[in-house]
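Researcher: Structure prediction, please.
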Amino acid sequence: MKISQSKQRWKIWLAGFAALIVAVSLWYTSVLVKKVSEEERKKVELWAEAVQKRATLVKYTESLFERLKTEERKRAEIWALAIQNLRTTNDNDALSFYLKVASENNTIPAILVDGQNRINHSTNVDLVKYGSPTEFTEIIKRDFSKYNPIVFNDGYSSNYYIYYQDSRVFTELREVLDNIIQSFISEVVVNSASVPVIVANANKSIIASGNLERQIQTDTAAMLELTSVMAVENTPLNIDLPDYGKCSIYYQDSFLLTQLKYYPVVQFTVIALFILVAYFLFSFSRRAEQNRVWVGMSKETAHQLGTPLSSLMAWMELLRYKGIDEETLSEMGKDIKRLEVITERFSKIGSVPELQLHHLQDVLQESVGYMMPRTSKKIALSFRSELVENLDAQVMLSVPLFDWVIENLIRNAIDAIEGQGGNLDVVLGEKGKWYCVDVSDTGKGIAPANLKTVFEPGYTSKKRGWGLGLSLSKRIIENYHQGKIYVKKSELGKGTTFRILLPKVG
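Model: Predicted structure follows.
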């Protein structure tokens, strides 16, 4: 039966199918991540383009207001000239003209102050909020000191000063502009992609940031360090901002995109852990069930062998009484004794065997000696010890079980030689704290792919084998004798060597 090979093929197929599922899932997730990343990049680029156009508009508006300031200065100067001429002209027509010019200023707040710092006249100014002063005090002077005053002489050696502010239209437009700039800076950190973003100028000064962790938002050094990481992850976008010059927009993948990247890994890790735990629990349960089956079958086998064994012993006595050849009876006695040993072996399965101190060399000689006359003459079965002379190799053994292992290995070696003739050697040696027993044959060998599965239940190279001998041998050596058993070497067409390691006493 090829139970082990069939199970191995199923494992390979299942592992391959699982790997295919994981690969397809990771590939599809990678495609999704790439698409989402491209979409986020496009959104940021569109947003940056809109920001750039708005920045251009802001710069144009700034230029416009500079021209408006110049125009308002000229209008203030014209109004000042009209006031001056009102004080100096005697021509009724000119006086009427200057009066009209002076009265038509209904937008620019202005105050006429004489050389004694007294307020002579005001227009478009709510003096009530200043307490209706007659003197040009510090409070009102502070509000009207944005621009240098216009100075003129009344023709009588007296100087007058006209202080003015931006017109109401100019102020309202300026407020709208400030709101646009403020909303523009705010939109830098609240974009449609909702990605972590930092805006910095050429001097690496942070202008704005958003969607960052709270502790980073308050740490300029951390944000500057983060811009380097962002620049590696995504190419920064460059724009011109009013009052800041050339700036760079650094951004990271959104939290959603980051989750999408690592979700399959986390998912498969959790699934793998679950499968691993389930596998170990199932394996433990299966091994426990196998152990119960082993014990039940072994006890039943020992019980079934008891009755015919007793009958054979009676027949032996009857044959001896009838004068049958003693040599024949001796060989039959050996087989009956072997049956008794086999019965004892099966009866010990499932219970902790009692280990006793034995001479390993004597046990091996007896086991090999029993197998020699039952082995084809084409096979040279031998035993030798490579231990130091007079070394007493004593180990703790359950002889019936250990003898079972040696018999299994020898029988497998005989089958591997397949009746074509060859050598089968059992060699006793030592290696550090271990005594080692090597069973070597010149048979067909074991394929490298099967070396890891030879001790699994169901593995066999025989057409009618059950593949239980090596599995049982491993259980006896490792579980009962705290030793080791493994394939030391094997080569197709040249043979195999199994090695048993048993701990030294003391």
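Model: DSSP finds eleven helices and 15 strands in the chain.
Researcher: Thanks, that helps.
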